[in-house]
Amino acid sequence: MASPFRVDRDRVASSPFFARLGGVTQVVSPTGSGLLVHNRLTHSLKVAQVARAVAERLAADPGTADLLRGLGGCHPDVVEAAALAHDLGHPPFGHLGEQVLDRVARHRFGLPDGFEGNAQSFRIITTTDVRGPSAVGLDLTAATRAATLKYPWTRLSHPRPHPRSMPVPPRGAGEPPDLPGTGSAKFSVYVTELDDLVQCRAAFAGRVDPWQQTVEAAVMDIADDVAYAIHDLEDFHRVGVLQHATVSAELGAWQEGALELAGLDRAGLEAQSRRPGRSLELLRRKLHGKDSWLVDDEAFAAAVSTVRKELVDGLLAVPFDGSVEAEQAVADFSARWTARLCEGVAVLAEPHPRAAHVVLTTEHWHEVQVLKFVHHRFVLARPDLALHQRGQARLLTALVEALDQWLTDRHEASRLPRRLHDLVELAGDEYARLAAAEPDLLVGATGEAPRGADAVRALARGRGVVDFVASLTDTQAVAMMEALSGRTGQLWTDAFVL
């Protein structure tokens, strides 16, 4: 008989929410472009691969066995299931879609939770998927549900005191500096799933602090970072975006002028950020500001040297031409770095508040930061990517508005997409219960809870629309907006609901 944790993994893998990730952007949408780039499905599979490898290594190490048991354990099946589930809630167009839906959820619908991809994943596995025996969520074990919680708190209210008020907030718990009063920048649970959070974390009480990741969640989180740092570089080397000359100039200029750059004031660096070496120096200072307990300038310099040798002088030295030799170079780079970073995982009995009990060693943490910097500086900051993302942001905003208008049209109420209708009804029941039993949980940035049935229905309509849009693929979102805008004569035939 299969273990309950293996059943968890199989339920996640067979969910249509998981299958849909094949049509959701990781960084750029491959739809119609012919680009061979990762999507959220292939990313999740690689995260699961890395996470299981790390968990198996830790579980086999007799030096950490007692410590891991005392912290709640590290089962490879739990870690793999959580890794497969961790991105289920990502909306169309990746992180851009997440930002857009959060903005419209808070400003158009007044949802104090807004939208967060991690919290949406937890909502799917506990509430909106129906493939579990009880037809509410996936009926996963408490261990697996807890392992999906990268940020085990709600945006504003739980636990109390809230981790964003700690002298040193955990990673992700602090408020965005440009959005004071809105709550934590990252969180893994909406108030509608707060009871699931409390239940699945109960077994870890006294083992890890209420705001800390479980060991299994920490392994999944590290695996996500490792996969992200490596395979996005592969993608943009393949398509010719990541150029040897520009990356080499940035890393080389910092190495050669590190002392001089360290003496420049921040304003000067920012004004010259397009010049080689300046952006990397800004990263070094940013790391000191956020993680001074961990940052080490010698380790940072060593990481820059290692990445320059392995990435610039290695992988990028020969342009990708689709040959067997080029593919082998990419595969070797990926395998070598994955193995290297998997080996660089340690277990701590008393971690810093910004860390978990499972961490990358200082050396490997710095290397991941530099790899991620290269991706951000030379891919995410490109104007041509921004051009497409601005269009995608407009499309998602317009789609939410069009669906909201449809919901409020009493003449069309009987012709709503059934999935949208069901999601609004589900949210209506949830918010009605919260408004009656725990209205404080519905208090947002205004400081007031919704009053009356109309206010509760408005919240439910907002959550239902956001749930619906978040469950679409990139292509479905585009096609649905085309249909709602009257720009297509084709009848809507795609099975766009889950």
Entry keywords:
57% helix; globular; two-stranded antiparallel sheet; mainly alpha; dGTPase activity; Hypothetical protein af1432; 2 strands; 3 domains; hydrolase; 20 helices; 498 residues; single chain
Protein model, in words:
- Keywords: Hydrolase.
- This is dGTPase.
- The protein has 498 residues and is mainly α.
- The chain has three domains: 4-216, Hypothetical protein af1432 (Orthogonal Bundle), CATH 1.10.3210; 239-381, no CATH class; 388-484, no CATH class.
- Helix content is 57%, strand content 1%.
- It has 20 helices and two strands.
- Strands 1-2 form a two-stranded antiparallel ribbon.
- Helix 3 (40-59) packs antiparallel against helix 5 (76-85), helix 14 (297-312) packs across helix 16 (362-380) and helix 17 (383-407) crosses helix 19.
- The longest helix has 25 residues, at 383-407.
- It is globular and about 70 Å long.
- The chain starts with a helix and ends in a 14-residue tail after the last helix.
Q: Element order, helices and strands?
A: HHHHHHHHHHHHHHHEEHHHHH
End-to-end Cα distance, whole Å, is 30 Å
- Fraction of residues in helix: 55-70%
Label the CATH architecture of the largest domain. Orthogonal Bundle
Q: Indicate the overall shape.
A: globular
Number of domains: 3
Poorly predicted regions: none
Give me the Rg, rounded.
23 Å
CATH class group of the largest domain: Mainly Alpha
Assembly annotation: single chain
If strands are numbered along the chain, what order do they take across the biggest sheet?
Answer: 1-2
* Strand percent estimate: under 5%
How many separate helices?
A: 20
Number of DSSP E strands: 2
For CATH, the homologous superfamily of the largest domain is named as Hypothetical protein af1432
CATH topology of the largest domain: Hypothetical protein af1432
Most strands sheet: 2 strands, antiparallel
Task: Let me know the average pLDDT.
Answer: 91
